[in-house]
Here is the input.
Amino acid sequence: MPRYDFRCRSCGATFELRRPMAQANDPAVCPQGHEDTVKLLSTVAVTGAAGGAPQQAPSGGGCCGGGCCG
Ligand SMILES: [Zn+2]
Here is the structure.
């Protein structure tokens, strides 16, 4: 689950929350109870599944493909 950093503009405290990405833009409440918070740009470690599917070589080479049995 991604982690988001917030900063409270009321008391200046910074805190982090773990929430689903669907709730990334939801307002966060400071641990002190303040609601005037802003979301900070944090470096979220995203594990990207790089790489592609292995390409399958075209399998040809039937007997009649080469005209050997005609
Ligand atoms: Zn606060």
